[in-house]
């Protein structure tokens, strides 16, 4: 997340994550009143993904999980295109399709459990969930309490209205929308604002919203000047906005997304092997391309990528 202040490590800046603003997105539409409404019915059909149980990997599962035949996964929609609900209320998305493919490799049924974002890691630690899969950034801080299995590389991307000229590295005095408790809310935008003040310029007016849709609506309706979110989220918003949202600058501060597991859990190496199997077999690429997020695909999955 581009330059939130000198001396601040990029991985530290993604401390709470969930980079923000899953901007309305799954198909932005305007009502007569000018509001934005999610129409999340257009879920891509993923082709080229034929996955079956791989005994050499599945046989390494922790006995309790193997016996249950299921993997309990905590997630927090809406965060399109990674995790959001379709018209029937089913949780779908890039993360969901990828996790389902992992489940096939392991011979497990994936059971998604919706939860508040900030409660997912504690639930994994407590054993309520086996895995947290909700666009978590793998950071050194988080690795102190949980382990991560990496599956994607995301940065930060700002968005603006088409006729504006926003520079994320020089946004002093502007109104910038963020989703509350995201890395943009906690660290990125505040650090940029502090740098403005230190340079004798007006601070950034950070405006927080409870949902990603609200942030995107605010930008489109002119209530804020720009928004800041994870690169796949912003890119998806742009692609679905019918030209009402465009990029502001380039992607910056890339860092790995990871699935969260309990610290020291024997599940981590099993998930890592399953993920690598999908990478090597091309199924991962096919899923990423179907959702339009192939820009952040990785070649190697690792445990605790922030440390690596």
From TrEMBL:
Its main location: other. It comes from Rhodococcus xishaensis. It holds the Pfam family SBP_bac_3. InterPro entries: SBP_3_CS (IPR018313), Solute-binding_3/MltF_N (IPR001638). GO terms for cellular component: cell envelope. CDD domains: PBP2_MidA_like. Belongs to the bacterial solute-binding protein 3 family. Residues 70-295 form the Solute-binding protein family 3/N-terminal domain. Keywords: Signal. It is found in: Cell envelope. This is ABC transporter substrate-binding protein. SUPFAM superfamilies: Periplasmic binding protein-like II (SSF53850).
